[in-house]
Amino acid sequence: MPSDRRFIVITVPVSAGFPAVEKAVSYWAAEQECTWEFGNVYDENDDVLDWVAELGLSP
Predict the structure, then answer these.
(1) What SS3 state is found at 57?
(2) Residue 23 domain-assigned?
(3) Where are the alpha helices (DSSP H) in the chain?
(4) Model confidence over 10-50: pLDDT tens digits?
(5) For the chain, what is the largest distance between any 2 Cα atoms, rounded to a whole number of angstroms?
(6) Phi, psi at residue 42, to the nearest 5°?
């Protein structure tokens, strides 16, 4: 992998809630001048995955 292609993976319990995760990670990403996205939440068509919908959560 090229040295300019770096990434970090963060695992957070769903009980923390999507808004809390989004706020914390967005703050960090802005300081690092980078982008981020949720993983294992959306399918290839950007639809929410079943497990998220079944829990009544929305990112």
Answers:
(1) coil
(2) yes
(3) 18-32, 50-54
(4) 888 888 888 888 888 899 889 988 888 888 888 999 898 99
(5) 39
(6) -115, 150
